[in-house]
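Box 3.1 — From sequence to structure: Pseudouridine synthase RsuA/RluA-like domain-containing protein
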Amino acid sequence: AAEQVAERRCAPWRAQAAALLDVDLLQEALRRWGSADFEEAAAGLRQRCPALEASTETADGAENQVSARIAQLDFLVDTGAMSGADCLQMVTSWPECLSDFTIRQVWAQDDLVAVNKPFNRLMYCKKRLPREVPVADWLKTGFQGQGQARLCHRLDYGTSGVLLLATSREAANWCAELFAGRKVKKVYHAVVFGHPSWDGQVCLDDPIQGKPSETLVH
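Predicted structure (token representation):
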């Protein structure tokens, strides 16, 4: 009798879970962010970016990456950091942003390794984002190279791009000296909405956290 009561109590939750499995995550996200024709929009995005197909048969781990990205954007909307319209504009302009959450090695030589850090990926753990897997933790469990990988520098949470690792203490110290002495040239590419108000090159020299800074914008 107790088992029958428990089964009746669990039945609604099981039905709800089964229904959720049939939900198209991309369509639902577009609808939440304000798309009027979210079904057609989702189909168009998948056509432009096949990795958005929620199936591991078409793209390895695509479903997990897409759901992780959607959860992040929903969090930014909930906290007021972005609006639904911002998310909609970003995703429709750059659908690949939803399929890129994996850290991948792009280069290696001697004791140096370069990986591609996706945007909105923490470098270190933060209490306010307990479910995030930061780069530092990935190095302990996901790095497939030889030796212990050490971070040579950082990239901001919202910044994607090349992240340099060292697999020996000597290489790590050498890289640290280069970065500390500002002998490393860093180039950032930005995806923007609209057009800048200037022509040619502009130098931004506002201090960052009280320290001198100079950035050339083309």
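Summary of the box: The CA atoms of residues 7 and 14 lie 10 Å apart.
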